[in-house]
Amino acid sequence: MGARALPAWIATALVGAGCGGPTGPPPAESAWLGAAACAECHPEETAAWTGSDHDLAMQPATPATVLGDFADATAEHAGVTTRFHRDGDRFLVTTDGPDGAPADFEVAYTFGVRPLQQYLVPFPDGRLQVLPWCWDARPAEEGGQRWFHLYPDETLPAGDVLHWTGPNQNWNHVCAECHSTRLRKGYDLAADRFETTWSEIDVACEACHGPGGAHVAWARARRGRDPRLAVRLGDHDGGWWAFPEGKATAARRPPRTERPELEVCARCHSRRSQIAVTDPGAPFLDGYRPALLEEGLYHPDGQIQDEVYVWGSFLQSRMYAAGVTCSDCHDPHSLRLRSPGDSVCNTCHSPAPYRTRAHHHHDPAREGADCTGCHMPQTAYMRIDLRADHSLRVPRPDLSRTTGAPNACNRCHDDRDPAWAAARMDEWYGKDWRKPTPAPALAAARRGDPAAAADLRAAAADPELPAIVRATALAALRGFPAPEQVEALRAGLADPEPLVRLGALQGLGEAGLQIAATLAFPLLEDPVRAVRIEAARLTAALPAVQLPEHWRGVWQRALDEYEASLRIDDDRASAHLNRALLQLARKREDLAEREYRMGLRLDPANVLCAVNLADLLRGQKRDAEGEEVLRRLLARVPDAAAAEHALGLLLVRRGEQDEALSFLRRAVDHAPRVPRYRYVLAVALRDLGRPEEALAEVRAALAERPEDPAFRELLRGLASAEPDPKPGD
Hints:
By secondary structure, the protein is of the alpha+beta class. Among the domains are: 8-55 and 205-221, no CATH class; 58-194, no CATH class; 240-429, no CATH class. The protein is built from 34 helices and 18 strands.
């Protein structure tokens, strides 16, 4: 969908625009006025924004906004036929509902516009749920103009968390905050319903600039000093980009010292959890806890794997380190690139040395010569939505074999192996491109290899590495508790970068309460909320009576902040899981049980709530109740390895060995990369007098984790117990 005509309410506001006379009474200074008020003085910005992806992020479902085929079209998935049809200007979908039975559902809103459009269905409890069928908005010649299912290879019956009526497809929690302006979720836990509100349905001016009341009041009255907007996003240091003499890459003068724009963009363009309700302009880490380069989200070298929305990638880039910000490349209102294609790169990189065969070694007329093809490879999410990696890295085919990370070369040359690509790069560039990187250490840490620890410590201490990489290295030390790691974490906790301090706190998780508390306690007064509440989480189990009076107050304030951060997501089982863990740390088992059960009420398929509740009941000698919890969960989630493992242990305690082994085995089959499951199975087999089977499990584990000390010790014990071979064996 291209840029559309200005809506009538904006067109009216633009009559006589410029900073003309007042058009209404002065608004309250803190008021959120909407894009119409901004349009009075900013017609060019409004025109650029109109029709942008921000403007069209969410819209009421009308004949003008719905792109999909609702002319009695049908689509089938996993035995369920879905029908798309209309009743006048109402758009209806006939599909399986929350009880699994087919029913008619009315579409209330469209969601997004290109390359796909989704549709939202309201429910009486205030929930808006996202249908799994999307409209491919691309032209037909590009494969578009069709319905497609987001999960084509999965069967998702009613009750599954990914079923369109389930918690993971709930707009109010998952999507809403970043598709509307000044959104307030408005969840009532007691009633289990939402009263979600927004000031504007789409991502409008104040979503980035903050409430405009004070600025608009001044503009209309023309009296006094302009109080400016709540958030000033432009450069205010007089900085510019220029090519130093003899250099092919521009530099910013003076160096950028503030990044208000990135702080605002990160609110939505990052993978994060919310820890406080804040308005634009508040520090990002005061409202959100961002994900580091975690397994499942990023490849070990930091390339995007899951949907991570740019921020975490961009922080790794040399562009970020040089002072580049979002609007250096993207127009902040239209969201389009400031120049098409590779020409946007030429803003800071002279084409003379780069747009040549000597640099890229490809046919200039073909895809391999594009800057973005090598340095910003794209990954498809939601099946057809191509998103570029913003870490802007040099391709590293040499790392693919050791880390499993993809590389730009073999994305195109998929008929060749990474060794071939690395050899070609050696021919072209020598060996200088093979720079040391923490990627192998992070990959080894994910495999549980203790040898990774030394390289992780070195990465954490390297000031040349991006803060998010150093933070990730520190967090990864959690798996290798030892005195050397504690010293590295101590240094990280004093780092000037808040992300590094946050990663160091995460790395303290296995250090033991006394060490963790001793090191984390000073950070209860950290200026950054995300750091304070992580320190509070680590120290929650301390007995308050042991603390000096001053620190007792500091500690309690940080704990209050942590508890408040968990109430942000009262509608999610995961928040109640964390609240239960907090109550357990405070020795309040009755409150912890209540939180676990509340989590299971909200999401009966939440595995961790069920497993942790069963473990709590075990400690209270209530295994029969724990067994009921686990079996009920497994009836909903048959492949939940953690629940199978927990049930297997419960049955071992009860002496029901055959069924216990069956569940322990199923846990290994469903989660073969979790070493604890295989270790417990091997020990159980050994104790039941089945050493050959135990050996097979240990050897299978060591094939994946050859340096794992627990399995190596178990192997020695099993090997020493083997009888001497008989002659002829």
